[in-house]
Amino acid sequence: MMKMKEDDLFPATPGKVKMDRALTINRQFHRCFASSGTMFVWALFLIALTASYLSLQSFVDSSSRYLPSSWGGMQWEKQIRASATPRRPGGKSVLLTGAAGFVGTHVSLALRKRGDGVVGLDNFNNYYDPSLKKARKAVLASHGVFVVEGDINDVRLLAKLFDAVPFSHVMHLAAQAGVRYAIENPASYVHSNIAGLVTLLEACKSADPQPSIVWASSSSVYGLNEKVPFSELDRTDSPASLYAATKKAGEEITHTYNHIYGLSITGLRFFTVYGPWGRPDMAYFSFTRNILNGKPITVYSGKNGVDLARDFTYIDDIVKGCVASLDTAAKSTGSGGRKQGPAQYRIFNLGNTSPVTVPALVRILEQNLKVKAKIHEVEMPGNGDVPFTHANISYARAELGYNPTTNLEAGLKKFVKWYLSYYGFNPRTSAKSSKSL
Ligand SMILES: O=C(O)[C@H]1O[C@H](OP(=O)(O)OP(=O)(O)OC[C@H]2O[C@@H](n3ccc(=O)[nH]c3=O)[C@H](O)[C@@H]2O)[C@H](O)[C@@H](O)[C@@H]1O
């Protein structure tokens, strides 16, 4: 059958066919244009044809600009189903939002590599360089993970995805991240972290089967908490930024969906996650870029000159925590949008348990980059920052077997190696103005 089709498309002697057709057309042409009157009619006909072709073309161009989405169609659904299909017995089928993000890419890859099915969803917004997100998408594609370009606020898209695939799990990592950017663009936090979350939960509650949900909260919910290390039992009612407030709201919102609809929910409070393919807006990343370019870096200090500190957590440890959360998540108990019984609700700290000060972070970067940083020290502005974070991880250790193993020295070494290979940066030639260590 295949052979016949190919023969139809590619005649055995194409040159001969062309010649025969050309002769026939030539003869017909002479016959048609025998009189000048007929020629005039033909000319008019050709002009009309060209004009209608051009106007059709411009209609297609302008309407495509207003097409509502880049998703849909049979081929698209085929890709979704293929990507969602597990490649191991008992494998999961996971819808992963924020798949082209930093944590999302790493978790997607880990799941795919062990044989789970993963469909990514990401809106590729320009909070930071979208080309980095596209590059992550390409890595995922090369491993068989399809990433849909769309927003978690798109009700129709979510309905289509849940129609196409009976997802067993949703790993919800899409969010407006960044603590200090909330001052500049508060609406984007409400859009993604509140409205988007609710839209996603609505789709999950109505899905059949209801998926189990694991989602990214944040260490920032501890806000101005001074009791260390931060435990999940501590109060989280004094957020210091709108970002933290939207993550805290997310914890309350997911609780109501758990309570009313029986959705199984696991919230993960990530502590300043860093590593290869990371987020350019974060301090370790932007410091690296500036140090290599010989530009100054701004290091904030706390009250009375006290150094700020973070419980920096390496991406591979976070991925293990995410995967263990999916593996231990109980099934949702609802169906047809109604709860059938109590469902699991958990919140875990995923940190490193060893805070490091920001000046110490800078020193490690200087050693790895072999370039001295130009430090501009200023007092921490009142823009949402908190002086320190420190995770108590006993609950995650007990329930998830979570056990972080990468310290900041080892983790930043891997980050710098990736940074130099990805950006092709040669510090010896490009940072001439910087003093070498
Ligand atoms: O753990 C978390 O929950 C949060 O961790 C990070 O937030 P943050 O810890 O503020 O991370 P960075 O923006 O990388 O800042 C790290 C430290 O460097 C300091 N910093 C930042 C930027 C700067 O220019 N100078 C400076 O000294 C900050 O004050 C902070 O102490 C992420 O950006 C948040 O999305 C995440 O939710």
UniProtKB/TrEMBL annotation:
NAD-dependent epimerase/dehydratase domain location: 94-331
Record flagged with keyword S-adenosyl-L-methionine: no
A GO cellular-component term linked to this record: Golgi cisterna membrane
Reactions it catalyzes: UDP-alpha-D-glucuronate = UDP-alpha-D-galacturonate
InterPro entries noted in UniProt: Epimerase_deHydtase (IPR001509)
Localisation per UniProt entry: Golgi apparatus, Golgi stack membrane
Keyword NADP: no
Top-level EC class as recorded in UniProt: isomerase
Pfam families hit by this protein: Epimerase
Enzyme Commission code(s) on record: 5.1.3.6
UniProtKB keywords: Isomerase, Membrane, NAD, Transmembrane, Transmembrane helix
Transmembrane intervals: 37-56
One GO molecular-function entry: UDP-glucuronate 4-epimerase activity
Domain of life assignment: Eukaryota
Membrane topology value: Multi-pass membrane protein
Similarity annotation: Belongs to the NAD(P)-dependent epimerase/dehydratase family.
Protein name: UDP-glucuronate 4-epimerase
Native species: Zingiber officinale (Ginger)
